[in-house]
Design goal:
The chain has about 100 residues and is α+β, with helices and mostly antiparallel strands. The chain has one domain. A four-stranded antiparallel beta sheet has the order 2-3-1-4, with no helix packed on it. The protein is flat, with a radius of gyration of 20 Å. The protein starts with a strand and ends in a 23-residue tail after the last helix.
C-alpha cells in the first residue's frame, strides 16, 4: 500500500505528482482513495521489489509512505460508507424491541 502527500503548488510539482501517479497505475496499483494506492503481489520478494521501484520513482519533494500487509490483513479492511443511521427512541423508557 502506498500513501503519499505531494506538493502541487508549482507546475513542476503538479507534473511530478502526475508522473508518480501514472507510475503507480502503470505498475498495477489501484486507487483506494485520493493519494492511497494498493497492489496485490504474489509474495514478500515481489513486494520488496515493488517497494524498491516506488523508492526509485518517488518525487524529490513530499512524503511517500509504504505499508506491506498480507492479503488476509487487507481482506479485513472495514469500509464505512455514508452516515451511520440508527433508530432510537427519544425517551427515557428502557424498552428493547427485538
Amino acid at each position: 500500500m502506498v500513501l503519499f502527500d505531494l506538493p502541487v503548488k508549482t507546475s513542476r510539482d503538479r507534473r511530478n505528482y502526475t508522473q508518480f501517479r501514472k507510475f503507480l497505475i502503470k505498475n498495477g496499483f489501484i486507487m483506494m482513495q485520493k493519494s492511497v494506492y494498493s497492489k496485490l503481489v504474489l509474495n514478500a520478494t515481489a513486494a520488496d521489489m515493488m517497494m524498491r521501484n516506488v523508492r526509485k520513482n518517488k518525487p524529490d519533494n513530499g512524503v511517500v509512505q509504504m505499508l506491506k500487509i498480507t492479503e488476509k490483513q487487507y481482506a479485513s479492511i472495514e469500509f464505512v460508507i455514508g452516515d451511520n443511521q440508527s433508530e432510537y427512541l427519544a425517551s427515557d423508557s428502557r424498552m428493547v424491541i427485538i
